[in-house]
Specification:
heterodimer; A: 99 residues; mainly beta; 6-stranded antiparallel β-sheet; two-stranded antiparallel ribbon; 1 helix; 8 strands; 6% helix; B: 226 residues; alpha+beta; 2 domains; 4-stranded antiparallel β-sheet; 3-stranded antiparallel β-sheet; 10 strands; 40% helix
Chain lengths: 99, 226
């Protein structure tokens, strides 16, 4: 059995990406946001109402809470436990990919 | 002394009753008119009347056949995904990062002839590696996953072509500003790929003639057929 794959929905911007929970860790604190794994659009939460524009000059998407790069080593896709911790587990779809 | 063939045929017609002679002539005229069309429609190789009586060499037959059954080259969607994957990944690895198409304009920054910048970023670490994901299907991925059928260089050429046309607002293109990013769409005359992923798989991987390109400034974020 494969690892559970969590996503909120297909990206409303690009249509091909999946909006997924991205977790940032800093000083043993975690923060979450929603990141499209295709076009890198960022939202504050799974409602996809508040989109965060990328800061001018930034090389890529950044965590709305800590300002860290969402592609840095301090960020990763949320697992089931982290989705629960953020209170977003009821907003995600679970897909089990075969390996 | 040998008589000409058409004289022999005329003499033969004189020997049969007039109504039969008229019927034979009508059949021959019908054959002359229909023979090339029958060959064309059914791929037959009926000889012409002239070649039957020996006035024409049968070389024309070969020409007709080659014209009518010339194969039309189309993409083979039945090719196993694993075979495509192997071919594509070799191409992607061998020619990375310029693919005989891009120019280096800085550290890990490459520019296409249309002015698109392929730089660092994405989960894969570089945009080129990110879009290379669209050279193969991901059948287990939820939702749709656009797959380009061709080499990485052909993909880069298609992205440039679509971007150039969409930027000018050409026919079959679309442009949408989305805050900090711009989404371009362009339609091609031919099929460029197919819809993969779980969603595409459920629809039996429908062919795609369109490309969607997401850019931020001049930097390419992603591109895929859809």
């Amino acid at each position: 059995m494969g690892t559970p794959f969590l996503y909120v929905e297909s990206c409303p911007i690009c249509g091909d990406g999946l909006c997924r929970i991205r977790v940032c860790v800093q000083d043993q604190k975690i923060a979450g946001c929603i990141l499209c794994d295709e076009c890198e659009a960022v939202w504050t939460d799974p409602s996809l109402k508040d989109r965060i524009a990328q800061r001018p000059g930034a090389e890529g998407p950044e965590c709305p809470t800590f300002g860290l790069s969402l592609w840095s080593r301090s960020s990763h896709w949320a697992n089931v436990g982290e989705a629960c911790l953020l209170g977003w587990f009821d907003r995600v779809h679970l897909s089990i990919a075969s390996e | 002394m040998t008589r000409p063939k058409h004289e022999t045929a005329a003499n033969a017609l004189r020997l049969i009753p007039a109504k039969w002679a008229v019927a034979v002539v009508a059949i021959l005229i019908g054959y002359v008119l229909l023979q090339p069309r029958l060959n064309q429609w059914f791929g037959w190789s009926l000889p012409s009347l002239a070649s039957l009586v020996g006035d024409e060499k049968p070389a024309a037959k070969k020409e007709t056949v080659s014209k009518t059954v010339a194969p039309e080259i189309t993409k083979d969607f039945s090719e196993p995904a694993s075979k495509t994957r192997e071919k594509v990944s070799n191409d992607a690895d061998d020619d990375y990062p310029l693919y005989g198409f891009l120019s280096e304009v800085g550290r890990n920054r490459y520019e296409s002839p249309a002015g698109l910048i392929y730089g660092s970023g994405s989960e894969e670490g570089h945009r080129l590696k990110h879009i290379a994901r669209h050279l193969e299907d991901q059948p287990d991925r939820p939702g749709s996953h656009g797959v380009f059928q061709g080499t990485m260089k052909e993909f880069l050429v298609a992205i440039d072509d679509g971007f150039t046309r969409a930027k000018k607002g050409g026919k079959g293109t679309k442009k949408e500003e989305n805050g900090d990013s711009t989404v371009y769409e362009a339609t091609f005359d031919k099929t460029i790929g197919f819809q993969g992923g779980q969603s595409g798989g459920r629809k039996k991987k429908p062919p795609s003639k369109k490309i969607r390109i997401v850019v931020r400034g001049e930097s390419l974020i992603t591109a895929f057929p859809f």
